[in-house]
Design a protein that fits this description.
Elements (H helix, E strand, L loop, with lengths): L2 H20 L8 H19 L6 H15 L6 H39 L3 H5 L17 H30 L41 H25 L8 E3 L5 H12 L16 E6 L2 H14 L1 E7 L12 E10 L2 E11 H7 L5 H4 L10 H14 L4 H8 L4 H13 L4 H18 L5 H16 L3 H19 L4 H17 L2 H19 L4 H17 L2 H19 L4 H16 L3 H19 L4 H16 L3 H19 L4 H16 L3 H19 L4 H16 L3 H19 L4 H16 L3 H19 L4 H16 L3 H19 L4 H17 L2 H19 L4 H16 L3 H15 L5 H16 L3 H19 L4 H23 L1
Length: 966
Amino acid sequence: MSKSSDHILEKAIIRCKKAQAITRPYNEDEMVKAGTLAAEKLDILLEMSKEGDFGELGEQLMILDDMVKNMQLAILEPLTDSIETIERRMNAYISAVNEEEVKSSDATSAERSQEGESDEAAGNRDVPRQSADTESEPMDDVTVQQQRFFERLHHFFEFQRIAEEKMQMIDPSEKLGTIKLKAHSKGIQEKDGTFKSGYRQQDGNGKTIKYLSDLYAAANEAKPAFQDVLNSLLQDLPQLNANSVQMAPIKDQARATEKAQEEYTYRIPGPREAWLFDILRASVTCKTQKQMSDVNKWLKENVHIVDCQNRFALPQFDGYRDLLYYISVPYKEELAFVCEIQVHHFDFKQQFGVNSHRPYFRPYFSGPWREPFENLRDLDMLLQVGRVDDNLMEFLLEANDSSQLKLFGRLFFEKLEETDRALELFKRVLTMEETALGKGHVITGTTYQYLGLSLLKKGDADSALMYLREALAVSDANLGSAHPEIALIHSQIGDALLMKGDYGQALIGQTETLSIRESSLGENHLLVAESYLKVAEVLLEQGDYRKALAECHTALTIQESILGDSAAEVAQTRLSIGEILEKQGEDQKAAEMNLSALSIFEKSYGRKNEKVAEALSQVGALQAKKGLYKEALSSHQRALEIRESLLGENHPECAKSHTFIAFVLDKTKDAEGAASSLQVALKIRGKSLGRYHLETSNSHFDTGILLLSNGDPQNAMSQFKECLTIRKSLCGRNHPLVGQAMNAVGRSKAQLGRLDKALSDHEKALAILEKAVGPNHPWIADTYQYFGEIQNLMGEKDKAFESHSKALGLRSELLGKHHPETATSCLLIAKLLESKGDLQGAKVAYRQALSSYLVLHGEDGQATAQVRVCLGRMMVGQLNFEGAEEELAKANAVLEGNDDLLAAEALSLLGTVLSKREDYDGALELHKKALKIRRRVHGDQHPDTADSASKVDCARSKNDEDEITL
């Protein structure tokens, strides 16, 4: 079979699956329409089949053609059976032909082998593509995502099937679906699609609900009155018992927020929170149809029914059935609160169980745009196809149903991480909607929004901004500037601006979002907390850690007041706080926040969850910073295992874990292992995201940092230049990340001794950064430090002192007196002053650095010991032997047992001090230890080794003189 025939059949199989999905109608009224649609799909299938020679299969397709033309379209069961038969025969035909071709290929290979043809030549010949149903195709990261999605989808439909079977057992005559419900409101929706404003929820003052907090306050006031209604129902219907009528806990505010967003965002009139009728809810469980009818009759006669639905006649999208009522309950003077009552059949409720896949698919059945049964059919078709590939895309892009394509686009983007394919579908949808509805229609506006978000995920901030601003204009025209959906788009625009590096405008966008949400939703709302976190995210990038931390704490206060202190949202905010605290040098407090978040995530989701992996990564980063490399490696490896098991080995999140692991391995002197891990991270990002993506540029940057720290500036510069090229291409020449990469290139040149060129790169970086982030940012301080280091190497010590002083001033102001980077500036200034001969100034700077290191690392910290060695060396130069001995003795106590050059210097200096007070025995012992280390590290010819050898000889000579004297 030729490759073109193979391709035609695979496309035809998708047509069969689509026709099968169509012929499973969800109510009888749709049967004729379903038959017509199925016939349309099959007509195209049959036309396609005429393009290839399929032998006996062609005859079967002709029989199907006659059946489609001659049958009554409303009678679908025979058609469904026939379609399924044809599909099976198609798959069998493909498999049989492939097997014959494999056998033929094997035989030909054997013949070629006998004739001497090379394996390489044989390998270049065409091999048929595997069929869509073949399970032996290698898995990649996308396939892992698809596999998990299709498992969920299978269980979703399996749940429906089981529900249908159980309903047939419980109610074979379908009498429950005939119970007639009546709403006293005569329906809350007007003919023009708007809703009756009088049925919106009211607050305690009789005004339409504006804020969720007011809705919950009114619910608490109305709760006793609702309980009275339930008690009256129970009293008047003795066939029910106390266990039959139960008031549920007040609805969780997080779910209420989610439901308002999903279902009522576009309901007119708003606000959307005013349409939440299930904050107060109760269930009535009946054992017979008679009891359910009695409850229905009682409700008709005793309460005002705002809205109702017999969901035995029209089941929910996941197959659940009950009688649903929204009733108006008077509770204070003329005030009333709308409450929900669900009337269940005991046998069905007991057997239905918990559908964990309901919340996963629920967003695709919310909103007014499409009937649920249409989405069910499309999901059914997708399940039948069983994979997302080019054949499915080709089929979809031929469709004329924009709402169908939008559904698949959302699924590809939100659930399957098929961003490129989602973009293709959204672009097709946009063309169709602009033609049919116009550019200014609210539905078209949502497509602009999806296009923007998809492009943002790909790292294309400029194109994302274009579509998001179109979405903003459309939504503003349709919904008004104070609508919560407008706030969401402002936030998404802020995200795009943040990616572009335009921090000032990003902050304006997120602040605008916060303002709209506080005004429309109230100050105590989860979306308001989300906005505080978004503002904090921008402030963090601007380097304003104090304000960012304050915004996060405000968000945390709101979340804890609504959700308690053990919710997953609270844990996520604690992770954000931990990140800021770590940047501020508050490592212990950061660790407490991270561990708290990890504990909550594990309790909420179990030990294998993406959020758990995220928390483990932050925990591991702090463990590495503390020198707990074994523990850090364990944390990062566990995070990697979770990500690989959930997302596949080639997912960008796995690249993050590999990067963390690389830097821990580097700290443990495993340079080869570290380089290997970074190469894996780069390979993953290059494959999954492409060369031109910010995360790919980050991999090049990280690799450069590792190479630079290991003394390979030439290769480091190559990595930094590649990073710079990608960032310039994506972000433009004036993005702060471009400035960061330019600084890195300069550092490489400085290590190579190309000081003038390095200085020029840092000057360019400074100009970019000052324009992008302003003069007060930690990256500006870093740049001044790089200036100072190069100027010192060039012998321009006064200029170097000025640059380091600027860095110190910025760090003290932005990061605080005892931040690690502030301490680094103090140390560099101290060394510079010491080299200039300003020993008194150096002593002050060393003391300031020592004060910071004591706070940061404690008396026993290696970094603290290093500062004491520097201070001791300077005091020896000042002939302050008593002060030097105190500092060096403390340093030696920490460094004892170390076998490095710092320990050697401390030993040598303390030996010199002991010699000055004529303790030659002690001095000789210390100089011998220093000599041993320096010989091992430097060899015999190094000046420091020679210096130690000379001091050993001198101390030994002095000992000999003492013995002669004695």
